[in-house]
Design brief:
By secondary structure, this protein is mainly beta. Strands 1, 2, 3, 4, 5, 6, 7, 8, 9, 10, 11, 14 and 15 form a 13-stranded mixed β-sheet that branches. A five-stranded antiparallel β-sheet has the order 16-17-18-19-20, with helices on one face. The two termini are 27 Å apart.
Amino acid sequence: MNLSAQEQWGKYAHLFTAPNTYVAGYSSHTITIDGQASEQDWKDAAWTSEFLDIQGEHMPHPTYPTRIKMLWDDTNLYIFAELEEEHIWAYYDKQDMIVYHENDFEVFIDPDGDTHNYYEFEVNAQNTLFDLFLDKPYRNGGQPNIEWNAKGFESAVYVDGTLNNPTDTDKKWCVEMAIPFSSLSTEGNFIQPEAGDIWKINFSRVEWQTEIIDGKYTRKTSDDGKLIPEDNWVWSPQGVINMHFPERWGLIQFSPEPPESTHASFELPEAEILARHLWHVFYAQRDYQREHKTYCNDLATLGIQANGEENGTGFLLKIKASGKTYTATLTTNNNLIISINQDGLLHLQTDK
């Protein structure tokens, strides 16, 4: 299709910008989690591009640069983040305190890419962890499981400056994480990535405006006493001020090659490109249901064409709705079948 984004996606165009991608090199050496990333594999790994505003590149550029690197081995996903900052502060010091009420660094992981059953990790500059599991996004009635803890998770923070000292100017803080693949589970079963596999992942940095009261950093309020909203800077822009649109996250590919041999990014898979048409149905159905209190059973009424083509691959869209539920299915001419339902649960299968 050669249509412009506005022509193709209409009022939802802001939700269809291309996600960022990253190729993670395989590390065959020991990675020590100390916040320093001094190992050669870290030095060889590529940096991502700098974070942007959560809504996209059309918004003001973030005040401070943020970038990350990733590695993996048979046991862990490794993440290293560098957050430049003139005033580094953090007071929350117990696990599962809501650290996004302070400046923090956040990781979101959906191993199978179906947008359900995903994991969130948040760390402040004092290395306080808030980890949780969501069975599905909040917009679909998801309930966060804060009692869930990632077994074996490690993190460390390095501060280039002084923590909680408003009298000086700091340079940056760095977060290093080791996330065991086995920890990404609620019932003991987990997905062990193999070389070439692709997962959904994204990263966010929460940044509050502060003022100094009694020698302590305090979040600023407006004249009416309400907190000034935080800035949200992310790796792969969401298009909306909400990290819990998992379909909008970026993609990581697990490379069998060492980090010095990997490229910084990769082309989007065919299924990722085609699935956008099902997300178009999902967004349109949400709006239709709000207005009519039922789901639509006709693509044309939603303003969506049933037939299309992406990069030479023809596809057919069908929808089946029954009041409170629906299923939309995309079938290609090369036997790829993808479906979505009212909860945004994405399912991919190959018809062999």
